[in-house]
Structures are given as structure tokens and as C-alpha cells.
């Protein structure tokens, strides 16, 4: 049932490029929006960041749902300086990877949650976050939480946003803005295993009637349809994260009563099976959909490296949740007002039974920003500025229909401390890491 965490995993250079690639687009879109969206001239940067997914990137949509999957209660957000420690709906104690890298790159805000009351008018032009804790590729995923936004619903919501862009910019400019100047980031799939196929109370029937291969096949067919729908709505540039090592999170270790250095075989095996087939799907879509660019982010290897070698990064635990209750690793009940809370929050890889801590996000963000950038998946050619060893030397001019053929290198600017302090309305997360609630 259990396997020891591998010590040979390495951070994927492909993932290094891809996450920064996305976050640079986020920076460019926010700055463009602040200038009144003057992106008509050649090389004017990215338009908007559209974020789809689950609780790893939920920026607060679940705050507006009657759901059991919520993070807008203390001590969540206790270390999130931009809100003064007030919970925002993020499923962590502070900043996500998106927050950290966004600050380093100089962004002032992130995509607004679709369900937020002020998600209208020009606020949409920097991008919209549709992600929802508990959401998955399959519609049945996460039903234990009662309400959540699955990927089908998130795409429906983007259709609404797409019409609003026509009203804001006019049909011709809106199409150009969406197709040429915007990035679509998708972080989803782990819930389909954790809170569907592997969930003890809900999965018995499914696991009797479907083999793992069949279930993963259904997931990928649904995802194919969802990505194709986005393409039909003029989405062209995608960053798709694979599923992390979900067998190594505190929840899985607790319910399976594992030793600290063990992970659940089945959960990680399912993640790896899905990841192999996901990459093939994205390669297929790159060939079949004219003008589309589907970029694959290898989240699994990045997270496994941190979990396996946690002490090298200054952590004392990559097993126990800092905030949670139940079992050896506080991995049963999510973080809330009655949870036990660790004293050294910066020494834990996991904030709660499912999600990384801010300290873990900082480590990963530094790797993304300053690690070498040599491999892009799937199969895009890269022209990198500088010596090729810095993640800050990335490509950010996407004002072209060709797949990265004519990209130009750029050097992002870090935000000053004063500008960061003014950013009290940060509303979004980017790709974090492991599996979710």
C-alpha cells in the first residue's frame, strides 16, 4: 500500500519556465489594465489572466457558495500581510506561489473571483478567477462538499465573461484581446481522485464499475471537451498543471496510517497514470487546434522534490499539517477556529491536510524565479535572455498566433516594498502545488 518517497526526484526545468511564463502574463495584464488597457500597439504585452481550477487557486469564489469547502475563517490567512491577517478564501496561511512570484515580478493585483460582487466592468480586463475549492474535471467530484464549481461550470462562467468582453471592448477587439493577449491557467484533477474515485464513502460503486484506466480516460475526455470549449470561445494560450503527489499529503498519510517517510502507492500511481496521458492529450491538442498553444507544467516532480528533501529547505516536517485535527498528522479535519495550530508555521511544508504553507510556497517560488530554464513541455523552442540559468530571464511577448516562434526575451521588474504594501486587494492565486480539498 505504501511506498517511500523517492530521493531521486528533481525540479522540472519545464515547470520552472511555465509557471513564470504564466505569472509574467499575469503581471503584464495587470499593468495593462492599470494603463487603461492600451494594448493595441505591437508588443503591448498580455491582456488578461483567466484562472480555472480547485482550492489550490481558489481566490475566494467559495466564499459566495453554500459549501463545506471554505477557507474564509481563521486561522487561514493569518500570515497574509496584504489583508492584515484576515482570511480571504485562500486555502493557506499566507501567500500562494502566485502571490509571491507576482510580487517579485511587480504585479499589483490578481484576477478577480468571478462570484465577487465587484467582478464587473473594467475590473474584468485584468482577468477573472473561476477556481473553486472541491471542484474537479468530473461533475460528480467534490459532492461531499455540497456546492462547488466544477470545470464545466467554470467554463460556462467564462462564456458569460466572454460576452462581457464584447460589451466592454467591441467584438473585434475582444476577440483579439482574448486570443492573442491572454493566458488560460488550469490547475485541476487532484480532487477527481481524492474526493471522487478514492473517497471511501462515495467511490465504492465507481471503483467496482470502472478500472483506474477507464476512470482516467473519462477524466481526460471531459477535459478535452472543456479545453475545446474554451478554444471555441477564443482561448488560445494555455498553461496546464499536472496532478501532484497526492499520496504524500497529510490527509492520505493519516487515513492510511503511514510512517512519516511513506506515501500511498495507489494515489501516486493514479496521479502518474493521469499525468502521462495528460501530456499526450496536450500534445494532441497542440496539433489539432490551429493557433492554440497548450503548455504542460510538471507539478508532480517539483512537489516530490520538496517533500523528499524537506530538511534541505529548512523545514522540520513534510508530513504533519500545521493547522488541522485528527490522527497522527492532523490530517483529517481541515483548518478552522478549533484546529490545533503549530507554533513554527514557517517550518511546515503543509499548512493543512491538503495545502502547502506560505513557507513552502516561498521555497517553490524561489526555484521558479531563479532556477534554470532549459526545457519546455511540450516541445516549444525557447529563446532565453542572459546566461540561460535564471528563471527571471523568460519570454513574455505573446502577441502572436504562432506558437512561441517569435517570442522576445524580457526582464521583469520587482515591485518596491511600498507598492507591495499598497496592494491590499490581491484577489487571486496561481498554480500552487499539491492536491486539494
TrEMBL record:
Pfam families: Lipase_GDSL. Residues 406-437 are annotated as: Disordered. InterPro entries: GDSL, GDSL_Est/Lipase, SGNH_hydro_sf, SGNH_plant_lipase-like. Residues 411-421 have a biased composition (Low complexity). Keywords: Hydrolase, Lipid degradation, Lipid metabolism, Signal. One of its GO terms (biological process) is lipid catabolic process. Residues 1-32 form the signal peptide. GO terms for molecular function: hydrolase activity, acting on ester bonds. The keyword Lipid metabolism applies. This is GDSL esterase/lipase At2g23540. It comes from Arabidopsis thaliana (Mouse-ear cress).
Amino acid at each position: 500500500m505504501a511506498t517511500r518517497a523517492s530521493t531521486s526526484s528533481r525540479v522540472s526545468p519545464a515547470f520552472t519556465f511555465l509557471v513564470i511564463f504564466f505569472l509574467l502574463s499575469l503581471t503584464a495584464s495587470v499593468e495593462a489594465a492599470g494603463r487603461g488597457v492600451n494594448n493595441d500597439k505591437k508588443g503591448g504585452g498580455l491582456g488578461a489572466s483567466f484562472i480555472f481550477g480547485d482550492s489550490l487557486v481558489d481566490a475566494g469564489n467559495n466564499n459566495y457558495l453554500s459549501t463545506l469547502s471554505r477557507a474564509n475563517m481563521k486561522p487561514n490567512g493569518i500570515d497574509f500581510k496584504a489583508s492584515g491577517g484576515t482570511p480571504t478564501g485562500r486555502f493557506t496561511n499566507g501567500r500562494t506561489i502566485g502571490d509571491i512570484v507576482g510580487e517579485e515580478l511587480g504585479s499589483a493585483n490578481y484576477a478577480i473571483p468571478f462570484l465577487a460582487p465587484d467582478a464587473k466592468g473594467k475590473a474584468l480586463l485584468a482577468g477573472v478567477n473561476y477556481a473553486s475549492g472541491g471542484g474537479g474535471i468530473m461533475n460528480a467530484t467534490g459532492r461531499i462538499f455540497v456546492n462547488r464549481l466544477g470545470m464545466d461550470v467554470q467554463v460556462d462562467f467564462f462564456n458569460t465573461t466572454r460576452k462581457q468582453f464584447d460589451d466592454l471592448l467591441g467584438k473585434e477587439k475582444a476577440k483579439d484581446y482574448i486570443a492573442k493577449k491572454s493566458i488560460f491557467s488550469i490547475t485541476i484533477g487532484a480532487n477527481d481522485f481524492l474526493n471522487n474515485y478514492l473517497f471511501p464513502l462515495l467511490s465504492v460503486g465507481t471503483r467496482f464499475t470502472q478500472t483506474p484506466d477507464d476512470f482516467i480516460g473519462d477524466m481526460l475526455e471531459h477535459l478535452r471537451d472543456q479545453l475545446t470549449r474554451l478554444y471555441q470561445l477564443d482561448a488560445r494560450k494555455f498553461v496546464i498543471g499536472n496532478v501532484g503527489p497526492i499520496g504524500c499529503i497529510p490527509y492520505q498519510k493519516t487515513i492510511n496510517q503511514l510512517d512519516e517517510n511513506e506515501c500511498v502507492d495507489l494515489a501516486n500511481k493514479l496521479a502518474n497514470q493521469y499525468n502521462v496521458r495528460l501530456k499526450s492529450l496536450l500534445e494532441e491538442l497542440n496539433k489539432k487546434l490551429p493557433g492554440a498553444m497548450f503548455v504542460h507544467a510538471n507539478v508532480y516532480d517539483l512537489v516530490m522534490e520538496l517533500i523528499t528533501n524537506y530538511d534541505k529547505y529548512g523545514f522540520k516536517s513534510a508530513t504533519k499539517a500545521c493547522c488541522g485535527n485528527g490522527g497522527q498528522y492532523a490530517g483529517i479535519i481541515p483548518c478552522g477556529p478549533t484546529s490545533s495550530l503549530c507554533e513554527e508555521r514557517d517550518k511546515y511544508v503543509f499548512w493543512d491536510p491538503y495545502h502547502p504553507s506560505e513557507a513552502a510556497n516561498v521555497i517553490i517560488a524561489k526555484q521558479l524565479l531563479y532556477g534554470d530554464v532549459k526545457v519546455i513541455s511540450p516541445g516549444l523552442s525557447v529563446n532565453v535572455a542572459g546566461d540561460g540559468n535564471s528563471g527571471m530571464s523568460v519570454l513574455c511577448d505573446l502577441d502572436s498566433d504562432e506558437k512561441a516562434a517569435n517570442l522576445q526575451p524580457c526582464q521583469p521588474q520587482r515591485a518596491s516594498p511600498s507598492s507591495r504594501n499598497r496592494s491590499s486587494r490581491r484577489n487571486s492565486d496561481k498554480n500552487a502545488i499539491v492536491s486539494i480539498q
